């Protein structure tokens, strides 16, 4: 994505972090935002563990448009939809990432990734490209 699109994604992700009370993530992301905005980041990357793929991965994880459907969201302790493995059986699904409200799970057998998140999906604001200050 280009710089403007990345900035828009970072802004949406920052708002989602704040909604979930993830203040440290939001603070680091703010520094990343400034670095991108002022073109301080080489290859859109800053040594904050933040990078474009990381932003996209978090947007998928917190179901932020346009990535809200990247991962399936399922009930807690779900079996893997692809191979049927359940937590507690061997080999099982592992928790890849935990965040307020839910977790990102990965099946250790087939590598499928899904979410177990109790939060409602973020509502889509109408424009995906416009530099609006909406919500
Ligand atoms: Zn599986």
In short:
31% of the residues lie in helices and 18% in strands. The chain has 135 residues and is α+β, with helices and mostly antiparallel strands. The chain is elongated and about 50 Å long.
Explained architecture:
The chain is α+β, with helices and mostly antiparallel strands. The two termini are 22 Å apart. The strands form two sheets. The protein has a four-stranded mixed sheet with strand order 3-6-5-4, with no helix packed on it. A two-stranded antiparallel sheet has the order 1-2. It is elongated, with a radius of gyration of 16 Å. It has helices at residues 3-19, 23-37, 52-61; strands at residues 45-46, 50-51, 72-73, 93-99, 102-107, 113-117. Helix content is 31%, strand content 18%. Strand 4 and strand 5 (102-107) form a beta hairpin. It contains three helices and six strands; from the N terminus they run ααββαββββ. Zinc ion (ZN) binds next to loops. Zinc ion binds at residues 80, 82-83, 85, 107, 109-110, 112.
Largest sheet: 4 strands, mixed
Rg over CA atoms, rounded to whole Å, is: 16 Å
Strand order of the largest sheet: 3-6-5-4
Oligomerization category of the chains in this entry: single chain
> Can you give the helix content as a percent range?
25-40%
Low-confidence stretches: 126-135
Q: Total domains, how many?
A: 2
Distance from N terminus to C terminus (CA atoms, Å) equals 22 Å
Number of distinct beta strands = 6
Bound molecules: zinc ion
Broad structural category: alpha+beta
SSE series: HHEEHEEEE
Sum up the overall morphology in one term: elongated
Strand content: 15-25%
Mean pLDDT: 83
């Amino acid at each position: 994505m280009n710089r403007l699109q990345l900035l828009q994604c970072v802004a949406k992700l920052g708002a989602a972090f704040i909604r979930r009370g993830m203040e440290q993530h939001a603070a680091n992301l703010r520094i990343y935002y400034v670095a991108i905005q002022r073109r301080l980041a080489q290859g859109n990357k800053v040594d904050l563990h933040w990078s474009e793929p990381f932003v996209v991965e978090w947007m998928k994880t917190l179901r932020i448009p346009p990535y809200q459907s990247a991962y399936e969201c399922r009930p807690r302790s779900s079996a893997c939809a692809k191979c049927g493995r359940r937590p507690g059986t061997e080999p099982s699904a592992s928790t890849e990432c935990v965040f307020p409200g839910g977790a990102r799970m990965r099946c250790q057998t087939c590598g499928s990734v899904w979410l177990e998140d109790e939060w409602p999906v973020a509502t889509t604001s109408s424009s995906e490209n416009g530099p609006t200050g909406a919500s």
